[in-house]
Alanine--glyoxylate aminotransferase (Acidihalobacter prosperus), 403 residues
Amino acid sequence: MTDSFHPPKRVLMGPGPSDVDPRVLEAMARPTIGHLDPLFVTMMDELKGMLQYAFRTRNALTLPVSAPGSAGMETAFVNLVEPGDTVIVCQNGVFGGRMKENVERCGATPVMVEDEWGRPVDPQKLEDALKAHPEARTVAFVQAETSTGAESDTRTLVEIAHRHDCLAIVDTVTALGGTPVETDAWGIDAVYSGSQKCLSCTPGLSPVSFSEAAVARIRNRKHKVQSWFLDLNLVMGYWGEGAKRAYHHTAPINALYGLHEALVLLQAEGIENAWARHRRNHEALRAGLEAMGLSFVVAPEHRLPQLNAVRVPEGVDEAAVRGALLDDYGIEIGAGLGPLAGRIWRIGLMGYASNPRNVYLLLGALEAILAAQGHAPARGAATDAARAAYSAASDQIKAAAYA
């Protein structure tokens, strides 16, 4: 007979999933009720309102897709892209490539705007592509590229798209909750994310939000949406307004309890405070890593606070370092992808995992492991540098309070 599965306790500091807040895990263990139960419908409405808070939007069509972030991506594309369309896809990492795949599977033509991995999307390249393809109806790009830790200028890219009469699809899977996402202020038409990163929830849900212009396109399509499950014309009947809901699918009830609790926690902290916390912990981690002689792939002005792409020093076995972190310290970090495979580590400070304890834990462990491989940083220098960064941040907060 097979025994129950009991996973070990890990510290999740990779590109996702991130550590889950204990309150979220507790919420998911609550009694299951029906997905059309009036009390569950009330919770759905609360959840939608809190997602609007997280996305900084008043969009009525804001909901969690009952599947991971990849399904949120597909929801945006299959609903807004029709056969024969031209879509400008900006790629500066792995996930821009996945956007291209979605465009092709919708029967549309992708026009690629490519930038070096580790750099943000170049607005001028997008402008040039749109001038060369006036038939384009949609622009798609990743705000926070998980494969590199680079952040693109979403406001500017959306403005360019709108100037050329295109809707903008934006991937915020790694961004939401960790760095500003201003859906309404920036005019984003379709935005999707994931529950397992800066929202501190478990994997399996994908928050999405669509503007009025996007909803109008969905309702006026010439072709049926190719996915029945992700067809928002149908899903709207279940995630709409009021007590009466049309059955569409059996929602992942307990997972939605968890997302509800995660968003309660985000509201309690305040989203601006969450952004500041991620930035503060990033600066301490950065200081510690640089004190060990390590460097970053992304320039400081384009660097995500919640996802750090760190170069592997010459002569260091990057896989062995990750293995030692996991086996000896219970810490998970990520490897590089694509052209960065074997060349970088991806260190996440997302959601509940973004805290000083994890920063100090990782720096101490990494310092010891690197020393064992012959890369000999000064003992204690990393944690001292992180401590100084936290002290400086605390002084700035106090100064601002008294200003």
The chain has a mean pLDDT of 95.
